Amino acid sequence: MSSLRTPTGPQEPVVAGLLLAAGGGRRLGGRPKALLEHRGGRLVEHAVRTLREGGCGPVHVVLGAAAERVQVEADLTGCVVVDNPAWEEGMGSSLRVGLASLGAADAALVLLVDQPGIGADAVARVRAAYRSRSSLAAAAYGGRRGHPVLFGADRWKEVAAGAEGDQGARAYLRAHADAITLVECDDVAEPYDIDTPQDLGHLG
């Protein structure tokens, strides 16, 4: 009689993709950034695909401005959609509700919806920097820290506690600069933001 055996090898860490897509596009005339058109779809769809192709899962998407419209017009199949009713307070509030939604994941890889020049290659590089639930890693561009950023689960509580206004995790990252593993992504990504009408030229 054979018996069922449970695998005893190390389990693959769960690195969740956390997409912050709640912005209202104030400097874009109030056009929600998630719904901007890019490469035949919506910016939020492009970012979700970037996280998945970079090896992240599950993917949690934090919505705020025009959240109901985004869910109707964008294909977020398979994503965990998180509503941030306090999105106007800034990115910090979206980071807090996003981290709180992640449950038992080992790490969160945070990507911003308005940086479409950051693709799956950069996500995969930063994800590969995961070592433990206390990991802290970020993409670097010419030696300067940028997105995406990876936070091991043991850091979430402190990150969330300091996430205020539009600063997101900047204060936490400054305070823990010595612990950050910087992953150079200058050769595979461009960290521009879509903030103003002039920036819309980056979208295709």
Structure write-up:
By secondary structure, this protein is an alpha/beta fold. Helix content is 24%, strand content 22%. It has helices spanning 43-53, 67-73, 91-100, 120-127, 156-161, 170-175; strands at residues 15-21, 37-38, 41-42, 59-63, 80-83, 107-112, 136-141, 144-152, 181-184. The strands form two sheets. It has a seven-stranded mixed β-sheet, with helices on both faces. Strands 2-3 form a two-stranded antiparallel sheet. A hairpin with a 2-residue loop joins strand 7 and strand 8 (144-152). Residues 1-6 have low confidence and may be disordered.
The low-confidence runs, each spanning 5 or more residues with pLDDT under 50, are: 1-6
Gyration radius, in Å: 17 Å
Helices, by number, come to 6
Beta-strand residue fraction = 15-25%
Class from helix and strand fractions:
alpha/beta
- The overall pLDDT, averaged over residues, is 93
Q: For the record, give the distance between the C-alpha atoms at the N and C termini, rounded to a whole number.
A: 61 Å
Strand line-up of the largest beta sheet: 5-4-1-6-8-7-9
- Element string (H = helix, E = strand): EEEHEHEHEHEEHHE
Biggest beta sheet attributes:
7 strands, mixed
